Amino acid sequence: MSVLSLTSALKALQPFKQTTIGLRALQANFSTSIKQSAEQPQPSRPQVGASSLFDNVQVEAEETLAHHEPVEKEYSWSSANFKTSPRKLNMIARSLRNLSVEEAIKQLEFSDKRSAKKILHNLAFARKNATEQKDMKNLVISQAWVGKGRYIQRIKGHGRGQFGIMHHKEAHIKFLLKESSTVTKTKTDRRNIRGWKEPKKTWMPLKEDKPIYNAKSFYNW
Predict the structure, then answer these.
(1) What is the DSSP string of 9-66?
(2) Three-class DSSP category at 133
(3) Nearest-CA neighbor of 151 among 86, 80, 89, 77?
(4) I want to staple 170 with a disulfide (CB 3.0 to 4.6 A). Which of 107, 111, 150, 220 is the partner?
(5) pLDDT in tens, 91-105
């Protein structure tokens, strides 16, 4: 084989030219220029919220507004400490619970207790503030409780050089006023439930479905 035939065969193959063409094609395909940026996939995210944690923020807000229940209004009032014992003041507080404010003021107006007049003024102030500040109507004393104030001890002199200790007690009263509901609850007659109104007989069969109230630890003959 002659030299000319070998050179003509190598020129026909041209290996270096094909490799340069292949490298340029690869560079063109993997180019990092701005003009040939890769297409980014479109994320399927909700319109509201920054991430998937806040998918239904707007829907939940609308549902809460639609099913919003009215808040029950209430007003609390506390008197200052005045000279009386908590035990005596608690007697008045028990008589005022679950009464309307107007009825409670009437009861205090004709009460012979010494602390009744001071409680009456405090209750009138509480009614005025509740109507003006919170626009409340048909007020009812939902809760009334008593708190202990100062408890001062003083020496009380007795005969023959002896002495005792006297106590100066103070207390205060607190009210929680609410609006009365329009629905009146009917009270069930407990005597009718217990079977007190049934006619008495010498012998009655045992009713297994009848509830037992105040069961004793021993047998009642």
Answers:
(1) HHHHH-HHHHHHHHHHHHHHHT---STTPPPPPPP---SSSSSGGGTTHHHHHHHHHH
(2) helix
(3) 86
(4) 150
(5) 999 999 999 999 999
